[in-house]
Amino acid sequence: MDKRTILAVVLSLAVLLIYQIFFAKPPAPPETAPAQQATRQASNTTAVQQPTTKTAIEAPRPTAQAITVPAEETPRDIRVETENYTAVFSTRGAALKSFKLKHYRQECEKCVADIWPVIKNSISGNKKPATAKGNELIELVAVKENMPYPLALTFPEAPSAISADSVYHANVTHLNLIQDKNQQRLVFSRTFRDGLKVEKTFTFNPDNYSIALDVQVFNLTDAPVNQAPYLNWYEYVDPQQEVDSYSKEGPVAYVSKSIKREKSAEISKEETLGPDVSWGGFERKYFMAVIIPENPSLTSMSMSRDANHMIAVNLKGTKNAIPPAQSASFKYNLFIGPKDYSMLKKLGLSLEEAIEFESFIPGLKWLSIGLLIFIKFLYQFIANYGIAIILLTVLIKIIFWPLGNISYKSMKEMQKIQPKITALREKYKDDQAKLGQETMALYKAHKVNPFGGCLPILIQIPVFIGLYNTLLYAIELRHSPFFFWIQDLSAKDPYYITPIVMGATQFIQQKMTPTVGDPMQAKIMLAMPIIFTFIFLNFPSGLVIYWLLNNIISIGQQIYINKKFAD
User: Fold this and answer.
1) Among 326, 354, 382, where does a domain finish?
2) Which residue stretches of 236-359 are H helix?
3) What does pLDDT average to over the chain?
């Protein structure tokens, strides 16, 4: 392929990447969304299943007048400890007050503020980080004072107000599944004045991030009642907080076998999805909290944002009639934890679709997943994702080595016939059709494929984008160290050393490439390493390492081809 075509491909990629990095900023949050009724906020829920009527309770049928409602108590907290997280539930709303992940921190714990202490420690053999920062554990519950807590249950259609702030009774004061894995149930219960008794039973799995939730609604009156409970997830979004432009933080759902997501800043009015909601909740770049209903086909989801920047998400099932002295059951599964592809895939609920591997090129999602699986496979043997990326680069280069040889050979041949092409352009400058015919005849006579030099570039672009998405969104690579100052392969090089070295290798490679085209095009091509260096400054360091090593191997391959042609 001649320089114009190569230039068009490279410039198109450069413009796209520059736009994404420097110009595609997240939209500013709306000034204020219309204030909503408090009961409406409480009804914005998370996931409700189709209720099924249970057998009648054995106690004699009481009337509403005979029901005794205990006095409201001061809310208290119930702490739940597992190997993976520390959860704090509150009797206010029988809801989730805090959920901290024990294996994930806000910032890279090994990242340091200065490169020189790292070098000094490495030379002296001291493996301890020079500084430690960001020791705060990841908190997946974001609430503000006077906000209802996530997983609060509301009944907006009940005769009397059953709000998200109702105080329940808890059967335990704390749970420690580290010491006793058999103690897995936390039960909240409350009897309301309109004759409803509600029980919320959380069953914890000590080995993962899944939680089962069973909601029982008892009708203690002598008349049928119609109920459709709402299980809410509330999230406060700080308008002053810096937003990651690569993350679509906000409500997420899997509806009709398709992922649906909305950025928090883009929600201006209540939106409804479904029915056929397999799961829904709130996501961040690397983490999510979702509710899975038992009957997706009868479940819908809505989301809204109020003037106080509170996001309310709810999954609602159909209304069900509960006969006197009987109960209805609403079952859910909860997942509150990291977007670990392997972990989510094993659950078999399509939760892995929440990982943002999709790109603007269809099909590259599966390439990103394949690269992640292969890198994790290598990690089992070398325990360093940086080295795994290097091995991946070498393997890709070996696979496409023959194509690289064809490309460089084609460019060499194109360089040889360049004077003849220039003569044809001058001779037929006023007859483009004749110029095309004569040029193709010249290519055929010399057995030159004008597109041969383009093949490696076209192949590298999908691999580049696939690895880019893998490094950007795979939590397995989050805060993964390589060596020295690169302690997070998913983040940019803090000292911009690797992008600068990468730019230098790109310049060397460009100088070694056979010149095809007019001198002005050659000068433009020499400027591409500078453009690429600026583009790569904010790219994940793992991606820069991949491209840097790819350049080095390509330089070696060009030296080999040049010597072969010289002989």
Assistant:
1) 354
2) 341-347
3) 78
Which residues, in sequence order, are CB contacts of 384 under 8 Å at separation 6+? Answer: 481, 482
Q: Which of 339, 354, 369 is the last residue of a domain?
A: 354
The model's pLDDT over 8-62, given as tens digits with 9 standing for 90+, comes to 555 555 554 554 444 444 444 444 333 343 334 433 333 333 334 333 333 333 4
Domain count, the chain: 2
List of residues 6+ apart from 436 with CB closer than 8 A: none
191 shares a domain with 323: yes
Same domain membership, residue 392 and residue 268: no
Give CA torsion, residues 79, 82, 84, 89, to 10 deg. Answer: -20
Helix (H/G/I), strand (E/B), else coil: 95: strand
Q: Which amino acid is at 436?
A: G
> What phi-psi label fits residue 416: left (phi over 0), alpha (psi between -120 and 50 degrees) or beta?
alpha
Q: Extract the tokens encoding 388.
A: 């795994």
Sheet holding 174-176, edge to edge: 137-139, 95-105, 85-90, 77-81, 174-176
Closest CA to 294 of 188, 218, 213, 353: 213
Q: What is the mean pLDDT of residues 512-521?
A: 62
Token pair of 246, please?
């690569």
| CA–CA separation, 274 and 254 (whole Å) | 9
481-504 per-position pLDDT tens digit: 888 888 888 888 889 999 999 999
232 shares a domain with 322: yes
Q: The domain containing residue 229 runs over which residues?
A: 43-53+144-354
Task: State how far the Cα of 567 lies from the Cα of 562, in Å rounded to an integer.
Answer: 9
Do 462 and 431 sit in the same domain of this protein? yes
Are the C-beta atoms of 515 and 415 separated by less than 8 Å?
yes
Asked if residues 44 and 303 have their Cβ atoms less than 8 Å apart, the reply is: yes
Residue 563, C-beta contacts closer than 8 angstroms, at least 6 positions apart: none
Tell me: do 304 and 225 sit in the same domain. Answer: yes
- CB-based contact 395:375 (threshold 8 Å): no
386 and 296: one domain?
no
Which alpha helices (DSSP H) does 230-363 contain, by range? 341-347
pLDDT in tens, 132-180: 444 789 999 998 888 899 999 887 766 555 778 889 999 999 999 998 8
CA 138 vs CA 131, 168, 238, 285, 481: distances in Å: 20, 28, 16, 12, 19
Phi–psi pair at 483, nearest 5 degrees = -160, 160
Residues 6 or more apart whose Cβ sits within 8 Å of residue 185: 171, 201, 202, 203, 204
Residue 244 lies in a domain: yes
In this structure, which amino acid lies at residue 289?
A
One domain for residues 307 and 409: no
